[in-house]
Amino acid sequence: MPFFKTIRWIVWKDLVCELRSRETISSMLFFALIVILVFSFSFSMDQDAARQLIAGIIWVSFTFTGIIGLGKSFSSELQNDCLEALQISPIPKGAVYLGKVLANFLFMLSVEILLFPLFILFFNLDVVEELGILLLVFLLATLGLSAVGTLFSALTVQIRAREVMLPVLLLPLAVPVMIAAVEATRGTLNGDPYAFYSQWIQLLVVFDIIFTVVSFWLFELILDS
Q: Cα(131)–Cα(203) distance, rounded to whole angstroms?
């Protein structure tokens, strides 16, 4: 099976399965809504503090919501020996990884796009002029989380305590993404000149390239182990 056809098949399979079950998206949305409500009530009496912390609140919500989706990335393959079928099938394992990354990226980005208007509503944000830069930050940070998270999801899928091990392994490596995303989002929301926070966006680009390439080469070893 050609490389790009395998990627397309993996993405299509995950999207169709999610449309039928709606398990991943619904659980991600439910958790994120709870986080938004908790933070909005916590800062309801202190809007100045909320505006100072809003970038961190946004990315804490997005990151932990994404971990829920990443944890379910390979769980469907455990049924009916699908994981073993992927291991022995004559398809490029790197294509399987990229297909999973793309599917996870789409799930996470969809939830972020649905949730961000709630942040605007609850925290009274003015983001009309900065939507383009914010979308770029969302795309780059979500891709970085998807690239690393997909690798660790495959690594922990057959571990009994995978719900615990995935965040334990993922979060330390995701720290650069979270810091860069928070700083770039804060600069954008504050209306700072692009030059003031452009280095954080550059860090996201470098992180995405390095960890996508490294994870691409490691995935085959993990899948065959």
A: 20
